[in-house]
Specification:
globular, 14 helices, about 325 residues, five-stranded parallel β-sheet, nucleotide-binding, two-stranded antiparallel ribbon, Helicase, Ruva Protein, domain 3, CbbQ/NirQ/NorQ/GpvN, 2 domains
Amino acid sequence: MGMMPNPDAALDEKAIIAEAEKALADIANIRQEVAKVIFGQEKVVENTLLAILSGGHALLVGVPGLAKTKLVTTLGTVLGLDANRIQFTPDLMPSDILGTEVMDQDDTGRRSFRFVKGPVFAQLLMADEINRASPRTQSALLQSMQEYHVTIAGQPYQLPAPFHVLATQNPLEQEGTYPLPEAQLDRFLLQVDVLYPELAAERQILLETTGVGDKRANAVIGAERLMEIQKLIRQMPVSDTVVDAILSLVRSARPGHGNDTTDKNVAWGPGPRAGQALMLCARARALYEGRLAPSIDDVHALAEPVLEHRMALTFAARAEGMTVRDVIAGLVSDLRK
């Protein structure tokens, strides 16, 4: 049976192309709308949107004051998602995120428990300064990111669909932070580094944001449409050359897999989730850039946001002033040869 040509396949391909072209138009509109409010930072906007389009969560890393919060609220508006924000602090408890059971008493004096949902019940959740909360509270959020439901007193409550967490984190040198454990970092599809704006963008920020009128973004799509695009991305075909490039990249980043530089500098490397993230995000990036199929370039461009939080350097490499980014850049340039 397996060898018979499938007449539906050609039809499916046509349907997928038609769908993809509609999605291209939607994504172009989303980009345009976000750009009205967020100046410069194209890479940041792109990677954050790629995480959402791929159905995952993103970790935004950068010093305070680089408009990370503004980006998240803007994306909530533009994608038509119901958004909440939690400011993480050392005294935040898991119940402050998940919700609590409260005791109700009716007219007859009968008592019963009622669950009051916490802010995690949103389609787009901004977890601000996630590394300021205690590990217990961090893991309450990270568990819901993984399982898409919350269990209170043995009772599971489904989180809304779609459900995306965009967490922000200050660079770790700062006082009063609890670094996220490796296994929990792995739950973020992408790490997005938010750098200081370029001069031209910073000038525009100064001029546009200190006047009376503040530009607002408008909704472009809604939750239903976002979920359709996410499903389409999972249906996009990926060529063998791109799959091979993903495997080569991920495997070359692991010590003990025949790459001398990695063996010397990397303490632990990315697991299988890194490859899954590259498969999804490469397709999303193709659409984001107006193409119908992912290319090896997509894999190279995504190497850093996908791998950076999934590997760590040896003490010796860190002592030499090397960064994970340097190592990833080296691996990518080896692959280009």
